[in-house]
TrEMBL record:
GO molecular function: precorrin-8X methylmutase activity
Sequence similarity: Belongs to the CobH/CbiC family.
GO biological process: cobalamin biosynthetic process
Source species, domain of life: Bacteria
Claim: Oxidoreductase is one of the keywords in the record: no
Name of protein: Precorrin-8X methylmutase
Matches recorded under SUPFAM superfamilies: Precorrin-8X methylmutase CbiC/CobH
Length: 229
């Protein structure tokens, strides 16, 4: 008997022997995914969503564990289809945070699309000082010339989303779609509402309220990039 595990010496990753303090659990990755998505589709109220939006919602719920996310989801008519078409045409994905960029599953991208995050660019701190704003907002300035037809994913900073909307009003090129999913207690609610109400009529997908974050933004990008669950 192994005193550390309380199981026989043959216990291992593939063993069915039980640990005394650990219940039996599903070990196969594919089965975990299957059960997870089945649970989401059974518990989440997806009936009012277009099929393409429902697919994105399922992935986002899977990332956060909250089936009531659907209640706060808002989208424009061509947000998902427009973003998907843009990616298939080779458009880049602009991300406000390195965590968002790092989470994109490259094999799901239909055209080996560029994933761009400029937050760590050496020019950003000085830009932030000049503009009197956050580095996240200042980093948007480095996107300006390449925004046309892109997919933008904001999963962290409300100031980044606010600045993007200001740039559009200043005449910056329009992205194909904006995934507005900043998280937090200051500016998150207001920045997402500003995106929805913006006079430019940007194609958008948002989760109203304080919820959001890198994991949700990544899930949305990955779901749009490929319809495969």
């Amino acid at each position: 008997m192994n005193e550390r595990t309380g199981a026989g010496e043959q216990s291992g990753a593939g063993s069915t022997a039980r640990y005394r303090g650990v219940p039996d659990y599903v070990r196969e990755g594919a089965e975990i995914y299957r059960r997870s998505f089945a649970t989401i589709r059974a518990e989440a109220d997806l009936g009012g969503l277009p099929p393409e939006v429902a697919g994105v919602a399922v992935r986002m719920i899977h990332a956060c564990g909250m089936v009531d996310l659907v209640d706060d989801l808002a989208w424009s008519p061509n947000a998902v289809t427009g973003a998907r078409a843009a990616l298939r045409a080779g458009a880049p994905v602009f991300c406000d945070a390195a965590m968002v960029a790092a989470g994109v599953t490259r094999r799901r991208l239909p055209a080996d699309n560029a994933i761009i995050c400029t937050l760590g660019d050496e020019r950003v701190p000085e830009l932030a000082r000049e503009l009197g704003t956050t580095r996240s907002a200042a980093a948007m300035e480095l996107w300006r010339d390449d925004l046309e037809g892109s997919v933008v994913a904001i999963g962290n900073a409300p100031t980044a989303l606010f600045r993007l909307l200001e740039m559009i009003e200043e005449g910056a090129p329009r992205p194909a779609a904006v995934l507005g999913l900043p998280v937090g207690f200051v500016g998150a609610v207001e920045s997402k509402q500003a995106l929805v109400d913006h006079p430019s009529g940007l194609e958008h997908l948002v989760v109203h309220g304080r919820r959001g974050g890198s994991a949700m933004a990544v899930a949305a990008i990955n779901a749009i990039a490929s319809e495969e669950e």
